[in-house]
Amino acid sequence: MLIGKVIGSVVATQKDEKLEGRKLLVVQVHNHVNKPLDQYVVAVDSVQAGPGDMVLYATGSSARQTTLTEGRPCDAVVMAVVDSWDLGGDNVYEKWA
User: Which domains, from first to last, does the chain contain?
Assistant: First the structure.
């Protein structure tokens, strides 16, 4: 799993029928200390994430392991909204702070 921040969405009116009805999110990759990187991924949303949410996402064949994405042509999926994380006892991120 990787961590990132939802910064936008993608609207595609013409797409493979297996992706119909699926929300696509633009996620900016963050490192372990919550620093944004100059890397982005478009991911299928399986957890109702929204703009500004820190999320966990998976790529590659793991992206097709959720109930929503199984058997679908996707290479990335948002599978959790992060509430908080810490490293070595130091708080790195708090959703409600």
Answer: 2-94 (2.40.50.220)
